[in-house]
Amino acid sequence: MVILGSGCSGLTAAIYCARAGLQPLVIEGREAGGQLSLTTLVENFPGFPSGIQGPELVENMREQAKAFGTDFATGDVTAAHLGERPFTLHLEDQPEPIHAAALIIASGARARWLDLPSEQALIGHGVSSCATCDGFFFRDKDIIVVGGGDSAMEEALFLTRFAKSVTIVHRRDEFRASKIMLDRARQHAKIKWITGAQITEVLDVDKKEVTGVRLQSTNGRHPASWEMPISAVFLGIGHEPNTRVFRGQLATDADGYLLTRDAVFTEIPGVYAAGDVQDRRYRQAITASGSGCMAAMEAERFLQHAGH
Ligand code: NAP
Questions:
Q1: CA–CA distance, 208 with 189 (Å, rounded to integer)
Q2: Which of 45, 82, 104, 259 is buried most, with the most CB atoms less than 10 Å from its CB?
Q3: Residue 276 falls in the annotated catalytic set
Q4: Between the CA atoms of 248, 83, 70 and 68, what dihedral angle is there, to the nearest 10 degrees?
């Protein structure tokens, strides 16, 4: 029983598989712990009335999985062969492939970032890619949302519940967002707009908190470069599911998310998909954990019927 991914989906699957006596192997890649390990306080995971730090929550799940007999292998998967059982996975820097009688793919999706050093340094200190996770911390503050697609509109609209103002910063003048989302955002009194500009630096790394941004014009209508005071920067520039190694073997939508039937079934018997790798809609720790549980129960049933 192999589980690819060590975020809350993969680790919940591991807890269930391990308790069922399947001795699962969890493959944790370079981004072990998934997106929870990039957040700070998690206040909406049931069972923690005072909240819990994201890294602590995922580490607790890892310990719980380990306590029931889960094994761990480290390394990114470089190739996968799902054409016949046992399925085969190749890990970077490991000569021996891993064989799986059943496989749960819980490799998640990574948020796209601007990839600025200052932005990376301030993740969890005012820079976030998750409005539902972190918006609450910026009550009555001025916030920026970056992006021009539906994700950015959705994040901006959500953040108006807390923020004093939300400024959408988009690098072009045209938007990818659907008309309905764009109209909704345009009609909102708290939402302001800066189009034709991009962030070149998030301030202030030395203070370990976001105090502003440096912006650059992309359309010649703004000053070449200027600073704007702000308390938080939310990235709404999309996510990328980690499905590259399964391309051509499993069905995906246009953006690479695995397509599933009945929540967790892929078209290959014995291969299940759980969490953000197949969910572009909810993307919550609790929903990822829930689908990890479902995948584990289906995998257990599959292995039982297959005589394992
Ligand atoms: P998207 O449609 O690909 O939009 C990404 C946006 O981020 C684009 O405006 C893009 O700018 C911008 N961007 C990308 N990289 C950037 C960078 N390095 N610097 C600055 N800006 C950058 O992604 P999405 O908004 O996540 O939506 C993905 C899919 O999910 C869409 O099909 C969307 O309809 C769907 N979705 C729907 C809903 C909903 O209906 N409630 C909510 C969320 C997502 P450019 O336009 O200049 O390329």
A1: 31
A2: 104
A3: no
A4: 110
Q: Which helix (H) or strand (E) holds 157?
A: helix 150-159
- Domain identity same for 11 and 74: yes
Burial zone of 240 (CB within 10 Å; 0-12 exposed, 13-18 middle, 19+ buried): middle
Domain match, 184 and 256 both: no
| Ligand 1 atom having least distance to the Cα of 150 | 25
Kindly report the CATH number assigned to the domain that includes residue 207: 3.50.50.60
Question: Is 8 a catalytic site residue?
Answer: no
Among residues 130, 142, 276, 279, the one annotated as catalytic is: 130
User: Cβ of 96: how many Cβ atoms within 10 Å?
Assistant: 7
C-alpha distance from residue 245 to each of 88, 230, 242 (Å): 12, 39, 8
Query: Is 237 a pocket residue for ligand 1 (Cβ < 6 Å)?
Result: yes
Domain range enclosing 16 = 2-111+239-305
List, for residues 51-83, the tens digit of each pLDDT value.
999 999 999 999 999 999 999 999 999 999 999
116-151 tens-digit pLDDT: 999 999 999 999 998 888 999 999 999 999 999 988
**Average pLDDT of the residues in 187-196:** 98
Which of ligand 1's atoms lies nearest the C-alpha of 174? 46
